Amino acid sequence: MLTGDPVMYHTKTAILWNNTHLYIAFEVEEPFVEAKLTERDSIIFLENDLEVFIDGGDCYYELEVNAANTIYEVFFIWKVIFITESHRIHNCTSGVSFFT
């Protein structure tokens, strides 16, 4: 990943969407799968997991799932945008992290 050289194990992704849903499929080669964390929003990126990042320009959405089907989900918005545009953002108080 860092060098662009061929990798030992492959990952394939397929993405499909319509007006109401986003569908993401992964096919992963990994001989040593480990998933001990089972509580939602645990720091599962310390284990084997699949990660999806959706760029919103001034914010992004992150979804991660490990082999135990544990979900880590977060929405990040930059503080300056939240302050200046908060009148246009609805239901955006829980689970928000700020970056300056």
Overall spatial form: globular
| Structural class by sheet pairing and helices | mainly beta
Task: Give Rg in angstroms.
Answer: 16 Å
Low-confidence stretches: 91-100
Percent helix range? under 10%
Q: Calculate the mean pLDDT score and round it.
A: 80
Count of the separate structural domains: 1
- Count of discrete alpha- or pi-helical segments spanning 4 or more residues: 1
Let me know the number of strands.
6
Q: Largest sheet at a glance?
A: 4 strands, mixed
How far apart are the termini? 28 Å
**What fraction of the residues are assigned to beta strands by DSSP?**
35-45%
Give the helices and strands as they follow along the chain.
EEEEEHE
Write out the strand line-up for the largest beta sheet, numbering strands in chain order: 3-4-5-6
Give an overview in words:
- By secondary structure, the chain is mainly β.
- It has one helix at residues 79-85; strands at 11-17, 22-28, 49-55, 59-66, 71-78, 96-99.
- The chain has a four-stranded mixed sheet.
- It is globular.
- Mean pLDDT is 80; it is low at 91-100.
Quick recap of the structure?
With 100 residues, the protein is mainly beta.
Throw out a few tags for this protein.
100 residues; two-stranded antiparallel sheet; mainly beta; disordered C terminus; 4-stranded mixed beta sheet; 1 helix
List the helices and strands and how they pair.
Blueprint: E1 11-17, E2 22-28, E3 49-55, E4 59-66, E5 71-78, H1 79-85, E6 96-99
Parallel strand pairs: 5-6
Antiparallel strand pairs: 1-2, 3-4, 4-5
